[in-house]
Design a protein that fits this description.
about 450 residues; alpha/beta; Rossmann fold; 6-stranded parallel β-sheet
Length: about 450
């Protein structure tokens, strides 16, 4: 069923859109750009619930000023794409008849299991439960669902099944559920990356020489990642490759209040005596449109993480930038993208928290320009398969002919017969407030609100 009276697409993100952006904002912008280039859905607007200081030649970028403003934007389009907790922040969207695409490329409830380790149990339980409640709301309302990988698709189909969304009505639309859940990975730009130039690094870090072999960590440093093992491996590798260097680019998140785990890595580097001699930390966040300049100044790209549930369903988005820039990738094994990198010869993977194995791989690549070149060529070739215009095709197809999910337009009796859960958030705001007070008092309420704001701004 196509919604009458609207044309084009509205992409809504809780993150600010500007010079410095993290994954959710980047994905919203690039998907909107891909839809614009496709042309079929009509005009495309990206709306930020935060700030919007970005001009784009193809898509309209706006900051939502208030609820009436967002309502006007929604009323004028044929479909809406949301991510994070947009439906929780604007529950009236759940009741509209506009086709809603829910982007759950980031399984943030699994991230919170790691981020909240060591916190007061009641607080930790409340944070994770709130994430699940948010996801329940999104998936119960979704007319179409986007995820980043095959593993994620299995995860979200299971979640949808628990909500009653895997039912005969949806199944008969297509037995493979392709009409409900599609894999749309993070993508790579259509343009060529910047030429290789070491000067951006040597200006920022004078101790980095023009002939050094530089490993780069291009994204944020989050609690579920493992920069300490990487620092230890680099320090151990210096005996064989004294010119090896490691640079962290994302030590201060562009969203205020989002924590970084870079402090632990910095302390490890200081304890090992390699801080500011072999291991360096960029104080800030590289502008999005300049990221290739920084990455192309390096020789090897790295991404390491711990072995836990988040890893199994993760899709390390900045690895796509590594591939685009033609860098050999060294990563921890366990996630789907690591398997793809290794299978295509674009890099190496090592077991989690294995300093020795990581050291060996780094020494091998740092010692052989030929090995780096071969892997780099493979990386650039692999990047082409992840071009935004290619990976966004399922979304473009849906937005060209938007429709309501067949089980969401049934009457209340039929919905009850299917066992469908309501897409509304569980309980009223007052009920949730009373529950939080019962669990942990006013302190828990304050911490929960702060956590929600940080997650809403970042995610996703």
């Amino acid at each position: 069923m196509t919604r009458l009276g609207g044309t084009g697409v509205l992409v809504v993100t809780a993150e600010s859109l500007g010079e410095r952006m993290a994954g959710p904002a980047i994905r919203s912008l690039e998907l909107a750009r891909a839809l614009h280039r496709d042309g079929r859905p009509g005009p495309v607007t990206v709306a930020s619930l935060g700030d919007a200081r970005l001009l784009d030649p193809g898509v309209q970028v706006v900051a939502v000023t208030d609820v009436p403003h967002l309502r006007r934007l929604v009323d004028g389009v044929g479909s809406v794409v949301v991510q994070g907790d947009v439906l929780g922040l604007h529950p009236w969207l759940v009741e509209t008849d506009v086709p809603v695409v829910v982007d759950v490329y980031d399984p943030f409830h699994l991230e919170q299991l790691e981020r909240t380790r060591g916190e007061v149990p009641a607080h930790r339980w409340a944070v994770v439960r709130d994430c699940v409640t948010s996801l329940n709301t999104q998936l119960a309302r979704a007319d179409f669902v986007l995820c980043a990988s095959g593993r994620q698709r299995a995860l979200w189909i299971g979640h949808l099944a628990a909500l009653g969304r895997v039912n005969p009505v949806v199944h008969d639309l297509g037995a493979d559920l392709a009409g409900l859940v599609a894999v749309v990975p993070f993508g790579t730009p259509g343009r060529s990356p910047a030429p290789r130039d070491r000067t951006v690094l040597t200006r920022a870090f004078p101790a980095v020489g023009p002939d050094d072999v530089v490993c780069v960590w291009g994204g944020g440093v989050y609690p579920w990642l493992d920069p300490e093992t990487l620092v230890r491996a680099v320090a151990a590798a210096l005996a064989d490759v004294p010119t090896l260097r490691l640079v962290f680019l994302g030590t201060r998140h562009p969203v205020q209040g989002v924590e970084s785990a870079a402090g632990d890595a910095r302390r490890t580097a200081e304890e090992l005596g390699v801080l500011d001699t072999a291991v360096f930390f960029h104080d800030g966040w590289v502008p999005y449109e300049e990221r290739d300049v920084w990455l192309r100044a390096a020789d090897i790209a790295v991404s390491t993480h711990h072995d836990h549930l988040e890893t199994e369903f993760a899709f390390r988005t900045r690895v796509l930038d590594y591939l685009w820039c033609g860098l050999p990738v060294v990563t921890t094994s366990g996630d789907e993208l690591a398997e793809v990198v290794v299978a295509h010869g674009a890099g190496k993977s090592v077991p989690a928290e294995d300093v020795g194995a990581l050291r060996e791989v780094l020494v091998g690549l740092a010692s052989s320009a030929e090995a780096r070149s071969v892997a780099g060529v493979a990386a650039a070739g692999l990047a082409e398969t992840f071009a935004w215009d290619r990976v966004a095709a399922p979304l473009a197809d849906f937005c060209a002919r938007p429709r309501r999910a067949p089980d969401l337009v049934l009457g209340p009796v039929q919905r009850a017969q299917l066992g469908l859960r309501s897409p509304s958030r569980r309980g009223s705001a007052g009920a949730r407030l009373r529950a939080a007070l019962d669990e942990g008092g006013a302190g828990l309420v304050v911490r929960r609100v702060a956590d929600r704001v940080r997650r809403q701004l970042r995610r996703g």
